[in-house]
Design goal:
347 residues, alpha/beta, 7-stranded parallel beta sheet, 7-stranded mixed beta sheet, 16 strands, 42% helix, 18% strand
Length: 347
């Protein structure tokens, strides 16, 4: 028997990780006959513009001296409250007209509040709740950043009828009540369709310019294709490219990756069997957590301030990382399978 639901889907608008996986999930839901109305903001608006969407003033995280600051986040987002209150009538009318049966949140705060008011089921889908729901061995030097990040996540979504948590390293659920599902990362179709090979270069991706890293790489007898500097130029063994369609091709053809520790890119690299040297941003514990998982699984290594010795060691160990990656058997559609089962259970 075919059943359909009307789903209000809240998507965090920070970065592209949330919106890119939401796009895959929404396309899947609509292919099953479900109706979806999205609430989002920021960069996600353009990514999800082809769907039925309500744009709001969203919550954004604020940093001080490179670290997540809860006080600054609260102060800087306080000014957005009046704008959402002003538009609340329009938002409420659209939601009431849509008549949701169920709510989904990917680190978006308004949808969980509405689901609580309406007393209807809420499903949380993200990778951030690894910090709140999984058993983690956190090094002492990262305890402060861990607690701040954990608090911030709970402020966004603290309660749900089910949590689907994406992780490229499976961990035990803390105090499992049967409502938490740890799944493989959901990957976009473009990644699943890629044909990989190994050319003689490393892919480098940064969100912030780092002259010290470039200086280190210039001393190593390898070719590095670098994204994140918004220029087309070659300087010795360093080849700079502007982000565009060539990025995914270079991702498929590189022999290793040196990049920031974002969950999406790291998940794609692991699926494509590419060794990874992670560069976690200071004070962003989720990126540190990704790096710790990566090193523990022997898929690569990481450093906050990489030296020539560390990069050379990573390159010398490529075969070891490739061997470990070859044994990884990901299930990139696992999120969708669990979600389908949950929707049936809530029907």
């Amino acid at each position: 028997m075919v059943f359909t639901m009307r789903i209000l889907y809240g998507v965090c608008g920070e970065g592209f990780g949330h919106s890119s996986r939401a796009k895959e999930i929404i396309e899947h839901l609509e292919s099953k006959g479900h109706k979806v109305l999205i609430i989002t903001y920021g960069q996600a608006v353009e990514v999800l513009s082809k769907f039925d969407l309500i744009e709001i003033e969203g919550i954004s995280l604020s940093f001080s001296y490179g670290r997540l600051s809860l006080s600054k986040t609260i102060i800087e987002n306080f000014s957005k409250i009046p704008k959402n209150i002003k538009n609340f009538g329009m938002i409420k009318d659209k939601i009431d007209k849509f008549k949701p049966d169920l709510y989904i949140s990917d680190m978006e705060v308004l949808v969980p509040i509405i689901s609580h008011w309406k007393k209807l089921p809420l499903i949380s889908i993200d990778n951030q709740h690894r910090l709140t729901h999984l058993e983690l061995d956190v090094p002492k030097e990262h305890n402060k950043d861990f607690l701040i990040a954990k608090t911030a996540i709970n402020l966004c979504v603290s309660r749900a009828d089910a949590f689907i948590i994406m992780s490229f390293a499976k961990s035990k659920v803390e105090k499992d009540n049967g409502k938490t599902y740890v799944v493989n990362p959901l990957l976009r179709k473009e990644i699943l369709d890629l044909k990989t090979k190994e050319d003689n270069f490393f892919l480098v991706y940064q969100t912030k310019k780092d002259k010290e890293l470039l200086n280190v790489l210039s001393k190593i007898n390898e070719k590095f294709v670098i994204y994140g500097y918004n220029k087309e130029k070659q300087r010795g063994n360093l080849i700079f490219k502007k982000t565009g369609k060539l990025f995914i091709k270079d991702l498929a053809n590189c022999k290793g990756i040196i990049a920031t520790s974002g969950f999406t890119l790291m998940s794609e690299a692991i699926y494509l069997k590419k060794p990874y040297f992670a560069l976690p941003l200071t004070g962003q514990f989720e990126q540190t957590l990704n790096s710790l998982f990566l090193k523990k699984a022997i898929y690569g290594d990481y450093s906050l301030k990489p030296t020539e010795v560390e990069i050379r060691k990573f390159i010398d160990n490529l075969d070891n990382y490739k061997h470990k990656l070859s044994k990884n058997k990901p299930k990139p559609k696992e999120t969708l399978e669990i979600l389908d089962k949950l929707l049936k259970s809530f029907n």
